[in-house]
């Protein structure tokens, strides 16, 4: 039995390295996904005649961490953009009609994601103002077009051919696109894109709200009431997390967390800061017990900087002499000034009323509640907020842990 044309094309092109044809697994969607998944690729430019949500959907998740510019031609099809502000109504009306045909959660999610990426300056969309554009060009690269005067460090590539940014262009139709990773081709195509971009009209997040969302018949989406009869296992799991962790489920809020230039924001440190602040408010203190090298001093500095405006008195940091320089350097780098540092030998000199927060580094060393320094420190901590730091919080005897807990609440026998 003779094979069909599509079968022959699939067999022929399935192993092509340079050409994509959308036959079998040799799709532009797959090739773009592989290119955008490379860690060094941070910028993505798209020049097409047609742009639809069906195309955006195919690579949308990969665009969350890129900076993407989409440039659409005119008089090819008015589905997303057109040349002037007056004609935006026509384009968005067409998009609304496109959505009204078959509206599902995924389409709403894509429009929501487009708006989110716009607001976070991750996505820009414009329309070519002059000269009808029917070009199809996809450029992915490691550097911003304005980040260098020369293009010597450019890495990435481009796809050029027949595919629009639509479902059919990325996987549905038979298309021919060629992949180039020549540095000079990336340079020339980027320069061409920039000229067209400069003279194009912009679609804003307000256009999304005013010209698309408000015209959809079933928007806003109806929220389905969750009851014990229809709750899913995943929804029940989320509910458990919310009930257990409370406001900590706020997905690592970075608001108010300021770092010096040479520091990186690490998620586990941000989580420790947010959790620590909550525990200070609820319990007047907490243990910070990361292992050596994970940056307990940095976490404390981040926390202090975030609550700095709420502190009415100074912070007292109690440390072994060997780490004094480290603490002073860190406080200086974070520009935190409302503190004093003392060693254990100077506890007797402290006037506790001058402080509202006591930080005790290497707190595991306090094992004997009858020791003079322990009693001095206990009095200093009385009615104060306390943070205990230790890389080895676990002790052989439970009594040792109880002794450290007394820093948070002084027993009557020691008061």
In short:
The chain has helices at 5-13, 28-36, 53-59, 88-101, 105-119, 167-172, 183-198, 205-211, 233-245, 267-283, 296-307, 324-333, 372-381, 398-405, and strands at 19-20, 43-48, 67-72, 123-128, 137-141, 156-161, 177-180, 200-203, 285-288, 314-319, 339-343, 355-360, 385-389.
Describe the structure.
This protein has 415 residues and is an alpha/beta fold. It is 37% helix and 16% strand. The chain has 14 helices and 13 strands. The strands form two sheets. The protein has an eight-stranded mixed sheet, with helices on both faces. Helix 3 (53-59) crosses helix 5 and helix 10 (267-283) crosses helix 11 (296-307). It is elongated and about 90 Å long. Mean pLDDT is 77; it is low at 75-88 and 411-415.
Subunit arrangement of the protein: single chain
Percent helix, as a range, is 25-40%
Could you name the ranges where pLDDT drops below 50 across 5 or more consecutive residues?
75-88, 411-415
End-to-end CA span: 96 Å
Strand arrangement in the largest pleated sheet: 1-7-6-5-2-3-4-8
* Helical/strand content category: alpha/beta
Task: Tell me the radius of gyration.
Answer: 30 Å
Mean pLDDT: 77
The first-level CATH class name of the largest domain:
Alpha Beta
**How are helices and strands ordered from N to C?**
HEHEHEHHEEEHEHEHHHEHEHEEHEH
| Count of helical stretches | 14
> How is the CATH topology of the largest domain named?
Endonuclease, Chain A
Principal-axis shape:
elongated
CATH architecture field of the largest domain: 2-Layer Sandwich
The strand count comes to: 13
Q: How many strands, which pairing sense, and closed or not: the largest β-sheet?
A: 8 strands, mixed
CATH superfamily of the largest domain, by name, is Endonuclease Chain A
Count structural domains: 2
Portion in beta strands: 15-25%
